[in-house]
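W.,

You were right to be curious about this one. When I first looked at the sequence I had no strong expectations either way, so I just let the prediction run and decided to look at it fresh. Below is the sequence, 98 residues in total, followed by the output.
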Amino acid sequence: MRINQKIRNKLNRTIDKFNGFFYEIPLSDINEALHSRGFMLWDSDGKEPWSGILCGTNETVDFGLATIKKDEVINSMLRLSWYRRPESGRYEIVVYIS
């Protein structure tokens, strides 16, 4: 399935509160926010919801998206970047739907 710009904008407004500084990467909170709009993180194999572990101090990861009914979104993804600040131990998070 494809999502239009209006839906993409709504999703970005929903997850915008996760851009900032956190003591941990708020991935489950991001996924819950997507669920509130009828979407979820989707595994790159295109068959099931995403599950896994995020590690590293400075990374960028792209996640697939799907509807709650498991219809894979083919024209957008969620991009999550983080940097762990050594002085505070907090993560600087940037997240958006492309």
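Here's what jumped out at me. The mean pLDDT is 95. And, maybe more interesting for your project: Strands lie at 20-22, 39-42, 58-67, 72-84, 91-97.

Coffee later to discuss?

I.
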